[in-house]
């Protein structure tokens, strides 16, 4: 499964920045050893249900240290029997784009 998620703590920063808290979450994800990718709005992680959800839980706990409340947005692609899809989906997309030129 692939899960795209975004975490943010409540913030009393005047500029609303949460990058330090997000960095703590991304560190948990990267340290997990599971395939992952981070963009400006989401982090994606791939693995089995229990291991992915465990990492997301620990990332949420890391963010909780930065505020009294945490917002979690989560989207999952659950496709049993498939792995390597974090990059595989992108490779297929790029081939499809190349074919349209």
> Mean pLDDT, rounded to whole units?
94
| Class from secondary-structure proportions | alpha+beta
Described by strand count, sense and barrel closure, the largest sheet is:
4 strands, antiparallel
Integer-rounded radius of gyration: 15 Å
Q: Report helical residue fraction.
A: 40-55%
Strand order of the main beta sheet, please? 2-3-1-4
H and E string = EHEEHEH
Strand content bin:
15-25%
| N/C terminus separation | 31 Å
Q: Choose one word for the global shape.
A: globular
Query: Which runs of at least 5 residues are low in confidence (pLDDT < 50)?
Result: none
| Total strands | 4
Can you put this structure into words, describing what you see?
By secondary structure, this protein is α+β, with helices and mostly antiparallel strands. The protein has three helices and four strands, in the order βαββαβα. A four-stranded antiparallel β-sheet has the order 2-3-1-4, with helices on one face. A hairpin with a 4-residue loop joins strand 2 (36-38) and strand 3 (43-46). The radius of gyration is 15 Å and the shape is globular. It starts with a strand and ends with a helix.
Describe the structure concisely for a colleague.
The chain has 101 residues and is of the alpha+beta class.
Descriptive key words:
four-stranded antiparallel beta sheet; alpha+beta; single chain; 44% helix; 3 helices; 101 residues
